[in-house]
């Protein structure tokens, strides 16, 4: 087994995450500090594997636009996501987020991806639904160098080695310290007692809009 010195060196990695902005449309910022084990991962691809609960999602079209401008590198599993599905009909999403070196400290990496809150069922009392976002897993992929067996363990990842031009290679995971076990996102929801009012307002808005469209067609339309 590993010596106490090696075990101590392997426990230096730290993961933090933040949710930026407010409301339904946020940015998930993930930071990784590898510390002493960062020397092992020099020249390797570093990623964070996060499981997004049904209450939030990543928009594939928005992600594709960002990737065209090299703003982010993300692999979504599944890659087809129903962005209109409510929270109670949506699946969990697995996100593999490629991380870039953070110039502010040695052995530090960071990455951000836009996430969006889904609509939840109306609540009886609270005007916010709580979405629990667990801490991501740290992964590295090294095609050109080896990793310390005491610190890094092979991981099952069905994704290419991000940032590499060669074929697929083995991903490794790292047991890390968590600055926070989980992050709780508050998503605004409607109240059940307002459902009748919402239905009436929606019906009136639909009738008014339809009447305006019909009036415009009758006034400006050309009928043969």
From TrEMBL:
Keywords: Endoplasmic reticulum, Glycoprotein, GPI-anchor biosynthesis, Membrane, Transmembrane, Transmembrane helix. InterPro entries: PIG-X/PBN1, PIGX. Belongs to the PIGX family. Pathway: Glycolipid biosynthesis; glycosylphosphatidylinositol-anchor biosynthesis. The keyword Transcription does not apply. It comes from Thinocorus orbignyianus. Stabilizing subunit of the glycosylphosphatidylinositol-mannosyltransferase I complex which catalyzes the transfer of the first mannose, via an alpha-1,4 bond from a dolichol-phosphate-mannose (Dol-P-Man) to the glucosaminyl acyl phosphatidylinositol (GlcN-(acyl)PI) intermediate to generate alpha-D-Man-(1->4)-alpha-D-GlcN-(1->6)-(1-radyl,2-acyl-sn-glycero-3-phospho)-2-acyl-inositol and participates in the sixth step of the glycosylphosphatidylinositol-anchor biosynthesis. Probably acts by stabilizing the mannosyltransferase PIGM. SMART domains: PIG-X. This is Phosphatidylinositol-glycan biosynthesis class X protein.
């Amino acid at each position: 087994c590993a010596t106490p010195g090696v075990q101590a060196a392997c426990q230096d990695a730290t993961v933090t995450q933040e949710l930026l902005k407010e409301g339904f449309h946020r940015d998930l910022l993930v930071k990784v500090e590898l510390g002493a084990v960062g020397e092992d991962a020099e020249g390797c691809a570093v990623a964070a594997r996060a499981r997004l609960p049904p209450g939030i999602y990543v928009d594939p079209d928005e992600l594709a636009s960002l990737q065209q401008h090299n703003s982010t590198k993300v692999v979504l599993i599944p890659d087809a996501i129903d962005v209109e599905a409510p929270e109670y009909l949506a699946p969990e999403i697995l996100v593999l987020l490629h991380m870039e070196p953070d110039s502010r400290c040695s052995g530090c990496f960071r990455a951000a991806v836009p996430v969006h809150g889904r609509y939840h069922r109306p609540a009886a009392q609270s005007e916010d639904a709580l979405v629990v976002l667990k801490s991501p897993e740290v992964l590295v992929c090294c095609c050109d160098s080896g990793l310390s067996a005491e610190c890094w363990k092979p991981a099952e990842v069905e994704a290419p080695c991000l940032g590499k031009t060669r074929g697929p290679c083995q991903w490794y995971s790292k047991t890390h310290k968590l600055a926070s076990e989980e992050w709780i996102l508050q998503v605004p929801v409607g109240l059940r007692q307002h459902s009748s009012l919402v239905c009436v307002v929606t019906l009136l808005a639909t009738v008014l809009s339809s009447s305006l469209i019909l009036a415009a067609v009758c006034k400006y339309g050309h009928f043969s």
